[in-house]
Amino acid sequence: MAGFAGRRAAEARHGGSYYNPQFQAHTLKVFLGHHLVSDRADVMMVTTLGSCVAACVYDPAAAVGGMNHFLLPEVPESEHGDAGAAARYGSVAMERLINELLSKGAKRDRLEVKLFGGARVIESSFDVGQQNARFALDYVRREGLKLVGQDLGGASARRVHYFPHSGKAMRKMLRPEALSETANQELHFRSTLRQKPIEGDVELFGED
User: Domains in the chain, ordered, with CATH?
Assistant: First the structure.
């Protein structure tokens, strides 16, 4: 079991990886609280979202792009100074993704953004998916970035396939059974988050 846990932690640090014969691409999984950047033509990034949001950001001139995956919009004061925890929040996730793209040759005034996720997968008075979506749209507008696509809201979990070399993104809505599983996992995660900070790397949603 320890070996399995270590392997999962290593996968999370590197986004997870496997070869996808359908797309003929080296596939990297983008886990909650992480981001990945690449300029390789043979790379595809994948993440699965419920109320979380993923931003796919691309520089067409430099042919480099990246994806993040965040849980909540802003870092609460209780977690200020906790770099690992902060990566779960949109304000930090967007900054880190853009900064790494700039370090790889991208230019801020060329960046194109596509946003995904923000579904209402849990019935409650606080619609965190809507809050995430609103934050992401406000961030793009506030920072003067170019929004070229969005698939936000609704009541279904979705999987996103992103090709960072070309900026192409594909979205698949998941079957109803996956929605129930997604909602249960998200409820469990948030319950744990309220009790104590999450340690290590977390993949919030599994495959359908």
Answer: 2-195 (3.30.1330.200)
